[in-house]
Amino acid sequence: MEDQHFLESDWDYCLVLDACRYDVFSEVYDDYLDGTLEKRWSVGSSTPEWAYRTFQDDHDIAYFSGNPFINDLGIPLNELKWGASCDYEWTASDHISDIHDVWKSGWDDDLGTVPPDSLAEAYYDNQDAVERADRTVLHYMQPHAPYLSRGKGQKLKQIQKGIRKQEEAEKGEGDAGGGALSSLGDTIRPKVEDKLDGSELAQKAGLWLELDPADLVKNGTREAALELYEENLRIALESVAELIPELDGTVIVTADHGEAFGEEGVWEHHIETHIPPLMEVPWLEVS
């Protein structure tokens, strides 16, 4: 299997589907897109790791980011107080020339995430930036949870709260010592993870915030989660399929990393957890 070679590959537009597994993508993509599909090995099992290992030099890219880890805030990943949990001294704006924080401008409070159409809207509204840059990336949040068919996503809402708190602290408007951390500390998942000390059950806690209890009882965690995950991917692909005819040049659809549903005891995705469900990503050159 070839490494992802994200920047070394030939493309004009790259559409990144956050947390998109190769196997699920390969089963559904041709309902929406035509092209040549490859399986590639990512450089990271989470967005911070992928970004840190991918963007090391100076890159002339118009980057429309639905993911708050890749942002124009100028704060290194290892200093983020809302969930990066890494020691990477890496700042997106130091390496990517033009970042558009769609995770802010396109946020949907009801869904608790950035819906895919927000990426297309940001792209259309910033054509001057696209024309100036050598290449363009649109980084979608889906199929990453929360699951759009359910709404009220909790996990990313807490990250969004933390971002706002940290921005206030950086501007001297809040308590830099603990505002963001305290806002996260009051949520369910960190309390559960602390009590269970990183066990497999604790890793499932993040999924439980997104799933319907009735589905869990009926189908079990893995089956219920995979069903909603596939649906999230399909929603994203519908939006991607509408946008691609407007893109003039070589278009790639890929992912930063995958998502685990219990394989090797892992749920969701975690930094430096290099197992196939997290590292095997699609690389589709669109016809």
Describe what this molecule looks like in 3D:
The chain is an alpha/beta fold and 287 residues long. The protein has one domain: Alkaline Phosphatase, subunit A (3-Layer(aba) Sandwich). Helix content is 38%, strand content 17%. The protein has twelve helices and ten strands. It has helices at 22-28, 47-54, 102-105, 116-125, 127-132, 155-170, 179-185, 188-196, 200-208, 213-219, 221-243, 276-279; strands at 2-3, 13-17, 35-41, 59-65, 96-101, 135-140, 251-254, 260-261, 267-268, 280-286. The strands form two sheets. Strands 1-3-10-7-2-6-4-5 form an eight-stranded mixed beta sheet. A two-stranded antiparallel sheet has the order 8-9. A hairpin with a 5-residue loop joins strand 8 (260-261) and strand 9. Helix 6 packs antiparallel against helix 7 (179-185), helix 8 packs antiparallel against helix 9 and helix 10 (213-219) crosses helix 11. The chain is globular and about 45 Å long. It starts with a strand and ends with a strand.
Keywords:
alpha/beta; eight-stranded mixed beta sheet; Alkaline Phosphatase, subunit A; 287 residues; two-stranded antiparallel sheet; single chain; 12 helices
Summary, kept brief:
The chain is an alpha/beta fold and 287 residues long. The chain has helices at 22-28, 47-54, 102-105, 116-125, 127-132, 155-170, 179-185, 188-196, 200-208, 213-219, 221-243, 276-279, and strands spanning 2-3, 13-17, 35-41, 59-65, 96-101, 135-140, 251-254, 260-261, 267-268, 280-286.
